[in-house]
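Hi R.,

Here's the chain you asked about this morning:
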Amino acid sequence: MWHKWLIGIFIVVGISLILKSGEVGPVKNKERSDTLRLMSNIYMLEKNLDDGSSIKLYTDTAIQYTDNTIALGEFEVYTSGGIYIKGEKAQYNIDQSKLEVFGPIIIKTQDGDKAYMDGLIWDRTSNIGGTDSPIKVEAKGIIIEAKNAQFRNDFHLLSFSGGVNAKIYNNYLGP
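And the predicted structure, written out as tokens:
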């Protein structure tokens, strides 16, 4: 008889553990206390109705705060202009339409050009971005390195400054 009680207790404990594992507990964030919501595995599509341009964003985690900022974990951004951005940590200010990326970041174009840097600020309203950290750009037949850079026109126009070094390959026959 006691073994039936023991089996019953195991079943009740097992069911409660299964149900509890699906619950979302309180958000624990030591950095900020103004957390509004915690989200995970996010896919966002933003489309400009005026010109038809769009941005797709994927992130593993996002924390929205009461001051209209969103902290992102690992993320990927795809623009309709053919730009791909990948980073480890970022913060987006909804009111200012500004994305600030912390840590290593990779930007790729649909032509296969790549930019590597550590940190980025992108003002989406003016469509200007920049980095104050060293940057390396690899394009067809050329490698450019600089201490910092500024981007315009959906990352298609770049301005380099500070210790700019360009390597152009002799065997590259461009268009």
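The chain has one domain: 29-168.

Let me know if you need anything else.
M.
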